[in-house]
Write a structure and sequence with these properties.
3-stranded antiparallel β-sheet; globular; 134 residues; mainly beta; OB fold (Dihydrolipoamide Acetyltransferase, E2P)
Amino acid sequence: MNGKPLPPINPASQPFWDACAQGRLLLQRCGDCGHLQFYPRLLCAACGSRNLEWAQASGRGTVKTFTIIRRAVSAAFEPDAPYAVALVELEEGPTLMSNIIGCDPASVAIGLPVRVAFEGRGEGIAVPQFEPAA
């Protein structure tokens, strides 16, 4: 384990985290209205239906906005500083907040194409991060 916090996992999010541990990014899709959503929850954010299923995401997206963190929020993140935290809009539509890794944070820009990568956090947990797309 790298000392970074583990995400809170509940019954609604367990399939998402299980997929991340396998290197797959999932989104919830409403079986009634087709809405795709992130973060995992019990109801469709668009129509309120409980008829939710899991759909494989492409893992591709673009940086919608970002900030560069120069002073780590805790000792666990100090080795990463400076690092970029961004809102990534997936090709499928939903937006995730995540770190941009694998590049100089100064090179991150709005509109940058990115792809998902996973950071192991121990205990079988992997957190989605994004890196510049080749």
